[in-house]
Amino acid sequence: MKTVIRVLIIIVIFILLFVLLNMLLQPKYAETLVEGSMISQYYTEPKDHEVIFIGDCEVYANFSPMVMYEEQGIKAYVRGSSQQLIWQSYQILKETLKYEKPKVVVFNVNSMRYDKNSPEVSEAYNRLTIDKMKWSQEKIDIIKDSMTEDETFLSYVFPVLRYHSRYDKLTSEDFEYLFKRKNNTYNGFLINKNIKGVTSLPTQRRLADYNFSEECYGYLDKITNLCKENDIKLVLIKAPSLYPYWYDEYDEQIKKYAEEHDIDYYNLKNNVEEIGIDYSQDTYDGGLHLNLTGATKLSKYFANILKTNYELTDYRGDAIYEKKLEEYKQAIQ
Amino acid sequence: MLFNILLLVISIVIYLSFGISNFIFILFSILTTFIAAKFLEKKSKKIILAVTIAVNALILIFLKLYGANVFPSLEGLNIIAPVGVSYYTLQVISYLVDVYKGKYKAENNFLYYCLYIMYIPHLFIGPISRYDDMKAQFLSPKKFSINSLYNGGLRIVWGLIKKLVISGRVAIVISTISQDIQAYQGAYAFLAMILYSIQLYTDFSGGIDIVMGVSKMLGIELQENFDSPYYSQTIKEFWRRWHISLSSWLRDYVYIPLGGSRCSKLRKCFNTIVTFLVSGFWHGANYLLWGVIHGIFVLLGDKIKTKFKWLNRLITFLIVSFLWSFFIWPTTVDALRMMGSVFTTFNISDLCANFLNLGLSIADWIVLGIFTIGLFIFDGNKNKIMQKVKTLSPEIKTIILCVGILLIFVFGIYGIGFNVNEFIYSKF
């Protein structure tokens, strides 16, 4: 009997060590590759947002909820992540609705361009979105929906299976953030103060087929239905970007879909002048994404649209948000 | 009986998962040899024996030749050799010959015969078992004990360490070097030869350790396939320690029937060379020269042995490593060229400068070095260590198992880009 107990204790210690190993070897996304920490930061935030943004880098780089709060008193949160695919946006929205019920969901339609066979679907981006999600049915579904051919479900359950080769790449960050986390965004907005104005742009490629896939439409339908079921106003947007990846043919399809489903659609690419974006100053990567100044201009502009059209509450004066705003202002200085 | 049925069903299901064509091939071998063995007890048995062996051997020979692109006109057929064909063909032949010689009677129970051939743990990389040994294992009452689970588990973990930690790392370097024969000659080729010795050994013996461990857990003891081969002092000794089940099969069913060593010197030489030709061919039609050279070294035997044990071991290791060139580079000409380059291209300084550009980081090289040294220390004291392990308490065995598993998780080479399931010897 004593032997059995001793063996069980050893096994428990082994399991603990195994768990620790998983934690140690998984990237912390605290100081480097911070894009991987954005999805999980949401769990630490108060869940009383009236506006939730979902989508790819075009939301977390371009829309600053703190500016929206300061301008219009909107409580918004950006649940964006790098190359967030539409089936991921759907699951993230589903997960969000378990925590709170916003009045408006803003979905950036850029990801309609990619279906599951697109070369842009990559394991590395999957990891940034999924790794730090809390375990839930949505996480299980998002993994199943997102896995590339080489990936295994088990490697998401036990990150050591994916990250074991980091054993010789561990840095002080891995130890410092072993048991703690670092918030890198302000309500999901990732500040980037760098300026890299437009010098040249890639030429627009002609495509053999401009139609969005049935698969993407299917997920867009799911997002639409989910919002309807929860009495949430869905707003479709296309964030501004100078890169010629959004074709007129794409825009027509979204416009048509929006009309058919009675959804508002804003292609903000068309309002660059009105917003006041100066692509020599307001971008950090030559026109693909906006930097802090560009995002501030866009957020002010879009906050006005939201406030005007969607009966949002003016929360200005909220103690928690005032404190957040103060921290945000310090960060952007 | 129920256990054996279950084992057979599991084996068939797993085997079927590799494709129905695999199953048709193996079923053909099983049926032809099972039925032929029954007739061997009657008249005209020599013809039945010869025809059945010839049919089964011809399938293997054809597949080997096809694999070596000997029939370019048939390339379009896209024939894929059934999994384990090299192993089970030798097993069915040994069964037929043993029945013919009266070593044991033909099996009446089809289940046992099927299980002998299809027993899934040994179907992919051996060891090549004999029917009487396996039947005794199937018939013996299964004593499942914590001890057999521990010992089996330890063997599996050791096999996985060899396969994933050592072989997986070496494979990266070998792949880099062998892909560019223009850039990587001389010292690089020599490094590849030495490392490939380690890769092939850890890959193959690691796989065998897993097979043995699983079998041990199932209460089945298989024949050992390795006995610290790189501690051999001659090539002849090497073949007594390396892939033992193949060597003993070749001895019993090729070398001795040819006349063995109880004949004239010339005939003995002929028998040895033929046996190693068969060995080479069994590995693939491209390895005939490799087999013949090994045969020559076996014939030389003690003639190239010095009085220094460690020097003999080193010489044997170097000879074996050089000859693995036929396995590293895609063609015989390439292999010979690379062997020659070791003596004509002196680029050791280039290798030193490029050491970290061969696919492994400095940490990987250190890990590889530590585990390889550990492997050789283990091999040198194998029996002592194995005996000691058997007497350890369950607590210590649990600790060793857990530490082993953690080491595999951290230092193993697996995941995206690495095919863990593939063993070099499963391709032969």
If you had to describe this structure to a student in words, what would you say it looks like?
The complex is a heterodimer of chains A (about 325) and B (about 425). Chain A has about 325 residues and is α/β, with parallel strands linked by helices. Chain A has one domain: Rossmann fold. Chain A contains 15 helices and 5 strands. In chain A, helix 12 links the parallel strand 4 and strand 5. In chain A, helix 5 packs antiparallel against helix 7. Chain A is globular and about 75 Å long. Chain A starts with a helix and ends with a helix. Chain B has about 425 residues and is mainly alpha-helical. In chain B, helix 3 runs antiparallel to helix 4 and helix 9 crosses helix 14. The longest helix of chain B has about 35 residues. Chain B is globular and about 70 Å long. The chains are: A alpha/beta (about 325), B mainly alpha (about 425). Chains A and B meet through helix 1 and helix 9 of A and helix 18 and helix 20 of B.
The helix count of chain A comes to 15
Residue-averaged pLDDT of chain A: 94
CATH top level of chain A is: Alpha Beta
Low-confidence stretches of chain A: none
Helix residue percentage of chain B? over 70%
- CATH-defined topology of chain A: Rossmann fold
Distance between the termini of chain B: 33 Å
**Element pattern of chain B in H and E:** HHHHHHHHHHHHHHHHHHHH
